[in-house]
Amino acid sequence: MASRLVLVLGDLFIPDRAPFKKLLTPGKIGQIFCLGNLTDKETYDFLRQIAPDLQIVKGNFDVDAPNLALSKVVTHGTLRIGFTHGHTIIPPGDADSLLIAARHMDVDVLLWGGTHKFEAYELEGKFFVNPGSATGAFSTGWFPDGEEPTPSFCLMDVQGDVLVLYVYQLKTDANGVENVGVEKVSFRRNSSQTAS
After folding, report:
1. Does the pLDDT at position 104 exceed 90?
2. In what side-by-side order are the strands of the sheet with 194-195?
3. pTM above 0.85, yes or no
4. What is the DSSP-derived secondary structure letter of residue 21?
5. What torsion, rounded to 10 degrees, do the Cα atoms 7, 72, 95, 39 define?
6. How far apart are CA 10 and CA 62, in angstroms?
């Protein structure tokens, strides 16, 4: 793989509302983990142009793709990374349920989707990441009244036992101007998470 960068995204739903397309250019990303709800062939084709190594798991709305796995595990560096859409995690987004899933999959890092809301945290030596919705698709039950989903995705760079996560979020300021904010979060197996 020419690039170590791994694109992590999910819950796309609205392909024509893809605010990050200009940032995602072929040749810069080595692999893509799509956490479900890709929902259309045009988006699939676009992602394949960015990186031919496209790993997809089934979301609850991927009805035209009955053969997709519900979860996958890959190894990058010395880290085992599992990913799933999240609709099989009960209760959805629950930290203890995610920890059980991570233990069951025997992974150091668990990526999950379904809530359309970015999260990243460490629990009992494991790292958990939800990249949110790349298009900011609306979801019921996850946001307080009046709060809209923030479009987001993540890029991972893994070197040995260190994962550096770059979180891209489309923020709108008080004047209605949209800007892409980037946050960096690091995880080292058997140590604490650090953010900068």
Report:
1. yes
2. 54-56, 31-34, 5-9, 152-159, 162-172, 178-188, 194-195
3. yes
4. G
5. 60
6. 11
